[in-house]
Specification:
Elements: H1 15-20, E1 23-28, E2 34-38, H2 45-49, H3 53-77, E3 88-91
Parallel strand pairs: 2-3
Antiparallel strand pairs: 1-2
Organism: Allacma fusca
Protein name: CRAL-TRIO domain-containing protein
Pfam family, one: CRAL_TRIO
Length: about 100
Amino acid sequence: MKAKMINLTTWDAPSELKAVFPYYLAGFDYDQRPVWVLEAGKLDFRRVVEPGEESLATAKRYLFQAIFNIIRSFLEADSGDKEVRKALVILDMEGFSLKQVNSAP
């Protein structure tokens, strides 16, 4: 099953997916670069992949939406004569375990 890429700006991901892979725009630094926080410690690939292809396709769509939002934040940070094409990403690893990224047996 392919992930749908249409309507990424308006699509609302399932709350279960947001809970296992939260990310958010925390603000902008002194150089107007967007600062994104990815709560990687809450990430649980197994929980997303094990239900099957539909769940995996939804997860892919969510990740594409995240990338789209990060790129879109560059445009928000642009000012008249200065283009912003870099971002800061903070990986919050609190609670991380290798079990979260192991493949299923």
